[in-house]
Amino acid sequence: MLGNTATSRPCYCAGRRNHPQWIERAGRQTRFAVAEYWRIPVERIRTMQDFSRRGLLKATAAAGAGAVAVPGITAVEAPLASAAGNGHGGSKCAPAQLTGRVVRPGDASYTDDRIDYDQLFSHYPLVIVFAQETQDVVNALTWARQHNVALRVRSGRHALEGWSNIDNGIVIDVSQLKSVHIDTDARIATVGAGLTQLEAVTTLAKQDLAVTTGSEGSVGLVGATVGGGLGPLNRWLGMACDSLIGTEVVVPSGRDCAEVIHADLKDHSDLLWALRGAGNGNFGIVTQLTYKVHPLKRIAYVQATWDGLTDLHGIFDAWQRTVPFADNRLGSEVEIHKSQILLFAWLAEGTAAEARKMLAPILSIGTPDVKVQVGNWGPIFAGAQVPRSQEPANVKFFSQFAKELFPKKAIDVIGYYMRNAPTEDSNYFVDAFGGAIKKEPRGGTAFVHRDAIFYGEIGAAWGTPSTTPGVCDPLTSTCQAWTAEFSQAMRSFVDGAYVNVPNIGMQEWETAYWGRRHFERLREIKTKYDPHNVFQYEQSIPPATSSRERR
Fold this sequence. Notes:
disordered N terminus, 24% helix, globular, alpha+beta
């Protein structure tokens, strides 16, 4: 079957969370080539030598003589049309070649290149293609279809159930597509799908511009946006997907081809609607995103810390009654840990005095340690990041939305489970909604949770990152059980779930992520752009007439 997936295999005996190099000015436009010092130096690889794995030989045999030369697969940069069919008809393509930075088992970088952020999952792909340009993505998708090899799409490596990686398949990685073009006059930014949230925030901030992103800098911008995208600026600017006005996408075409299409409010507007909240890796491979960006010269950042959980009820209740109904410029998150409570708040174009005044009902409870910083959004965002070496290796989350204020009983449940959390890194996290989130952008979005008061997330975190993920950790079963029990205890107080933080054990995940009406529309769009269900994983959107239903 095309796009057949392998099941993720967590180790259950051990368990699982820019800088401009040059600037060219032309009129009022600014072009950035983002310095890629964080990347492995790229060498254009034109051959894949000695694919000895039996799986590849078996998979490629069906492609016919001449499709693959063994040993050695010559990778040529064919014109775009050579890998594109005529729409979704029945035309066949010429045999595709893999291009870009191609990594296979046995290569020196294979271990580093296959490891993802959440080390609860460990996959061994047949080949990883790091695209250097859109054509590489076209070639890789065509190659996967022609050889009947399962595929996954990867950007920031933060897929929290390991679904952006796969055993014995091809991983098409867009993390090195880091172009940035900013039109400061029109306030439009077009960026490569490889940018992280940190790179996007800092690059835009140099021009006093911003879009909504999450608070973790290493997360891929494309994955966060396509799933909705919530974070510090969402009450002011809406969800990240609300600012998305265009995309470049590589989609299946014909019997075994791929083609590039552009989706915006005029062309393929249905696909743009879907890519505003459906989740990544469902319809095609996004290679470029265009945003309407917003002016932001300064931000007031507040961080408050309370020792212990004695004041939990007062803090949480004051927060949920204050921030979701405050000035739209105010965004805020609360993290409840085993031995402390953290408040983060951001006031766009605000002062320290204004921020303290808005947060007074919360800050007046107990004796918090309060710090306030005012300045450009880029340095403030960058300064709040935690190095990967200091983060836990394994994470397990459960997402939920609150549409009503939590009663005392719900806060008591949070307190009970947090006092009994398996590690200090584990937490219950909430992000304030309301404000601009309530209003959809022109063209609408697949993101459906606009009536929520806040987003909630249960998160267990444990272990130390290593180059040998999947090694059994004795805390795994404890952490996974804690997350499952905590989520069940909160069930009567919450509604829905967030596709970017998938709930693997949820039965009716389709309606939890998108609601029934949106889900049915997403299936119709899937049928149009990926009728053969090439892009599939455990909770992917199926076509309207899936093989499951035909059986």
